[in-house]
Amino acid sequence: MRKDLEQILVEFRQEVERVATDEHLKQLHGKYFSREKGVLSAQLRRIREIPVAERPGFGQDVNLLKQEMEAEFDRLTRTLADEDYHRRVEQERLDITLPAVGLPRGSFHPIKMVEQELCGIFERMGYSIVEGPEIETDFYNFGALNFPPDHPARDEQDTFFVAGGRYLLRTHTSPVQIRTMQQLAPPLKIIAPGKVFRKDTPDATHYPIFHQIEGLVVAENVSLADLKGTLHDFARQFFAPDVRVRLRPSFFPFVEPGAEVDISCIFCGGSGCRICKQSGWIEILGAGMVHPNVFVNCGLDPEEHTGFAFGMGVDRMAILKYGVPDIRMFWENDVRFLNQFWYVQ
């Protein structure tokens, strides 16, 4: 290599040693490799000043110089990149032993939370959870449950019929009881949670879609005392250990005798308030002894088997447990409302 080209390489290497930043690297590249003003380009333009016989050798020397300088420049670029990487690693180092930043967590919907609590109470009593379809036939939703043909619940003003009236959206989870009694032999001890549908005008206590849990026990010598004891135990676990329970005679087509079940007001302790309408009692569910006609419709002998059934609205249980003033709040998906129940879990 010619001495003047060797001198350029020496100067280039000296400048490489002094480069410490990306800006200096950019300036070095422009000084030596720029097509217009770069040192290498200037050497290539000199080829016209050299005798013809010496031009091939000079061109080879310039190319060799260029290769060595580019190799040096590439090594410098990688070195600066590595140094920058390690510097940033040190500056941005995380102490993984520090407590993590708290992130907001999701939670179950309050209706689902109450449903799980209710199911848990009855599971501890030995009940099994069963489910059934939300689209039912008239037989399972009404006929097998001893509803007379002219019962108001069968009217289109109260029930959602589909497929030209051949099917309907179930109005309670009682059809699950019928299907279970048809498929399984007694003794039975089940609860049936699920979504139900009725043509109710939305207001503070009614909504066209809501949730129920119904219970059924079928065996020999099951009595009304067994039903009352079960509901007493449930109420004490769900509401308060000192809550009182009473049964008032009522009519439901699928039970005989039937009863409305009340608890002593959990808001005033039974002394009377706005919520219990000064009565000291709050209605929570309906119950009774399974009607013999229901057993017959399921292929069971009412002379051999007895049983009791009960049903409650999960939404109503949530309203009572959490003091929610309006059932519609459960369906509005207002995060400000739903976030309150994270602390209840």
Briefly say what this structure is.
By secondary structure, the protein is of the alpha+beta class. 39% of the residues lie in helices and 19% in strands. α1 runs parallel beside α4.
Describe what you observe in this structure.
A hairpin with a 4-residue loop joins strand 3 and strand 4 (167-169). A 7-stranded mixed β-sheet has the order 1-5-6-10-9-8-7, sandwiched between helices. A 3-stranded antiparallel β-sheet has the order 2-4-3. The chain has 11 helices and 10 strands. The chain has 2 domains: 3-91; 110-344, Bira Bifunctional Protein, Domain 2 (BirA Bifunctional Protein, domain 2), CATH 3.30.930.10. 25% of the residues are buried. The protein has helices spanning 3-18, 22-33, 39-45, 55-91, 110-124, 138-141, 174-183, 224-238, 292-297, 314-322, 335-338; strands spanning 128-129, 135-136, 161-162, 167-169, 188-197, 209-219, 245-252, 255-264, 281-290, 306-313. The radius of gyration is 42 Å and the shape is rod-shaped. The chain has 345 residues and is of the alpha+beta class.
